[in-house]
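Worked example

This section walks through a single chain of length 509. The input is the sequence exactly as stored; nothing has been trimmed or padded.
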Amino acid sequence: MAKDWSCSLLLASFVGAFGSSFLYGYNLSVVNAPTQYIKAFYNESWERSRGHPVDSDTVTLLWSVTVSIFALGGVVGTLMVKLIGKFLGRKYTLLVNNGFAISAALLMAFSLQAGAFELLIVGRFIMGVDGGIALSVLPMYLNEISPKGIRGSVGQVTAIFICIGVFTGQLLGLPELLGKKSTWPYLFGVIVVPAFIQLVSLPFFPESPRYLLLEKHDETGAEKAFRTFLGKENVSQEVAEVKEEARERRNICLVSVLELLRSPSVRWQVLTVIITMACYQLCGLNAIWFYTNSIFEAAGIAPEKIPYVTLSTGGIEILAAIFSGLVIERLGRRPLLIGGFGLMALFFGILTITLTLQDHASWIPYLSIMCILAIIASFCIGPGGIPFILTGELFQQSERPAAFIIAGTVNWLSNFTVGFLFPFIQKSLDTYCFLVFAAICIAGAVYFYFVLPETKNRTHAEIRQDFAKRNKAYPPEEKIDSVLSDKINRSPEPGSSSVLDNYTENRIV
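Given that input, the structure is written out below as C-alpha cells.
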C-alpha cells in the first residue's frame, strides 16, 4: 500500500486538509476555553451600548447562538458548493474559500477592540460558511485524486486534521498561552495562519483528474494530474477507468439535489448517507466537544485542572484517527463504522452509571473520564472520518456534488441541533442524557449491519451494483447493459443477431 503514496498526493492531502478540515476542528473546540471571558465581554458590550446590564438568560441565549450559529453558516456554505464548484472546480473552490476564513478571523479577533459582540457572532457564522464548503469539497477532492487501493486512508486525512484542529484549539486555549482575559481574541486570529498557508501552497498542485476529464473534458490535463498524484508515468489504466464511467454516464449532466432525492436508482445510497451523517453528529461526541468543561465539572474534576484534562481528549482523538487511517484499507469501512458506534453505545451506558454514582466513591469520577476518552477513541476509529469517505464512494461523478450537499446539510443541521439543545437535554435528563446518544449509536450500528456493503478497494461501478440489488431500479444505461447481456446469453434464435445489432446501433445513436 505504501507504494501508492506519492509525495505529491501526501502533500496535497495535507495542504488541503490543513486549510479546511483543520479549521473546522479548531472552531469546534476554540470557544470552549474562553467561555467565561466571552460571556463577560457580552455583558460589558451590552451594558455599554444599551445602558443596562444584560440578564443571565440573555447571556445564555447569546452564548448558545455563538456556538450554534457556526452550524447554520455550515448549512449555507454547503448549499453554495454546487454553484461555486461547477465553475471553479475542487481546487479553486478550496482556494476561494480561504477568503471566508480570513475575513471571519479578522472580525472575531477585533470584536473585543471594537467593543461589539455582534462581530464575534457574525464571524462565527462566516467561519461556518467556510466549514460547510470545506467539508463538502475537500472529501471530494481527496476521493478523486487518490487511487482506489488507498482511497480510504487518504479520505481519513480529513478526520485526522479535524482531530488535530480540535487539539490545537484546546492547547492554545490553556491559560499559559492564549486562554487569558487579555489574549482570548487572538485565539480567533490564529485562523488566518492555516488559511494563508493553503492559499499560497495549494496552487502548486493539480486539479482533480476526474473533474478535469469528466466535467472539463481535458484529457491531457487529467493525465498530467494522474501522473503527479500517482507518481508514475503510465496512467492508462486509471484514465481508462474514468473513461469507462464517462461512457456509461455520457448522456447525464450534473444531477440536482431534487433529482438525486427522486432517483430510485440511488434511493438506498441517499438514505445511507443521510443516516450516516445524522449519526455522525447526533451520536453525542459534539456534545462532549462543546461542553467538555461542564461534563468534567459534573464528573468532579477541580476547575483549575479541567483545561489539562480536556487536552487529553484531543490527544486521544488524534491517535485514534491515525490508527483508523492505518487499518481502514485492511479492515474495511463497514467493521470500523459498526464497531465504533457499538463501542460508543457501550461506553455511554457505563458513563451514565458512573455519573449517577459519582458521589459514592472518590474513584468513580476518574472512571467517568476514562469513559469519555473511550467514547472519543471509539468515534475517531470509525464514525469520525468514514462518513465523508462513504459520501464520495457511493455516488458517481455526476451525482457527487448533489450528494455532498445533502450530506453536508444533514451534517450541519444535526450539528446545530446538538449544539443548541444539549444544554437543555442535560438540564432535564441530568445524568441520563447520554442514554439518548447511546440509543442513536445502536440504531446506526444496526442499520449499517443490515444495509451497508463493504466499499474497500472497489470501483464506484462495483459499489453501485451492490446497491442496485436493494434499490431494485437501475439507471437507464445499466438497464440497457442488462438487456444486452440477457440477449447475448440466450440461445440463438433465427433473426436474433439482426435484432441485437439493431438494438446496439440504436443505443449508440
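What to look for: Residues 476-509 have pLDDT under 50 and may be disordered.
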